[in-house]
Specification:
Blueprint (H helix, E strand, L loop, with lengths): L1 E7 L4 E9 L6 E7 L2 E8 L1 H16 L5 H15 L2
Antiparallel strand pairs: 1-2, 2-3, 3-4
Length: 83
């Protein structure tokens, strides 16, 4: 299991974190958590998990400390708008 926390001190909120969980299927399950509550989840196949990794790396290279959270939200938004 992997997680990355994103401090949100400017807004007085608890850190947000992305947690990788094992799934029964061949997909990778990523969960978005804040303050002990699961906010969202993504089930990604191998290709989309690679996209997540690349997005996370791009955010990290820009100096974003919560790069995994940004990548998660970017994929979640793309998934909700793609039909």
């Amino acid at each position: 299991m992997h997680s990355q926390q994103a401090p949100d001190a400017a807004h007085g909120k608890r850190p947000v974190e992305v947690v990788q969980q094992s799934c029964d299927s061949s997909a990778t399950c990523l969960e978005l958590w804040q303050d002990g509550h699961k906010l969202d989840e993504l089930y990604l196949g191998d290709e989309m998990f690679e996209v997540f990794i690349n997005l996370e790396a791009a955010w990290r290279q820009q100096g974003i400390s919560d790069s995994a959270v940004h990548a998660f939200r970017q994929l979640a938004c793309a998934g909700k708008t793609a039909h």
